[in-house]
Amino acid sequence: MTPIRFPIRSERPQDGPQIEDLLDRAFGADRHARPSYRLREGIPPLRPLCFVAETEGRIVGAIRHWPVRIGDARPAVLLGPIAVDPAFERQGIGTRLVQTGLAAVREAGQEAVVAVGTPAYLGRFGFTAAGGYGIALPGLDEPRRLLALALVPGALDGAGGVVARVSPTDPPVRP
Ligand SMILES: CC(C)(COP(=O)(O)OP(=O)(O)OC[C@H]1O[C@@H](n2cnc3c(N)ncnc32)[C@H](O)[C@@H]1OP(=O)(O)O)[C@@H](O)C(=O)NCCC(=O)NCCS
After folding, report:
1. Is 65 in a helix, a strand, or coil?
2. What is the pTM of this model?
3. What is the CATH number for 147?
4. How does pLDDT run across 117-131, given as a tens digit for each residue?
């Protein structure tokens, strides 16, 4: 059997610098100024929901997830950032990262996912315009890039509200 060329594995603490470098190259070093980064400020990622694709010790793709809330109370997971090294694009790595990530989110019992991303790309995994649920994220240059996915039918019905950073008083988000 042919081995998978770019195995996906859980992110490890020592992967941090390689991932930051990959994200800088994919999104630009000014990525931290984006509205989605306000949602992550001071909040650790959901570690068991962070994965990398690796080949010979080199990280060629990464996906992370953060806890967020929609409106005052509804817990959700922010998918992203996701990036694949430009030299390794169009080989299915991004697809496997998203599939692995969403399976882990589902496994963790989370029902709602939001993302700021390319509609044509994330649409392949079931994401639709978050505006259709009345969900918003102020400050986006292109509001149509705010996407949402209900992992359980109806999970986003009536979810209208602003995507917000979790706060220490929010109930803990699994995992
Ligand atoms: C978007 C990205 C993660 C895709 O990674 P990848 O490993 O090249 O993706 P895959 O090989 O799994 O591509 C799967 C399919 O999506 C398509 N696709 C890739 N990028 C796309 C895009 N920006 N828009 C629409 N479709 C896209 C590919 O053509 C491919 O189609 P096919 O299966 O019909 O051949 C990668 O290009 C990237 O890191 N881009 C820069 C960072 C970024 O924009 N991240 C946010 C994306 S939401």
Report:
1. strand
2. 0.94
3. 3.40.630.30
4. 999 999 999 999 999
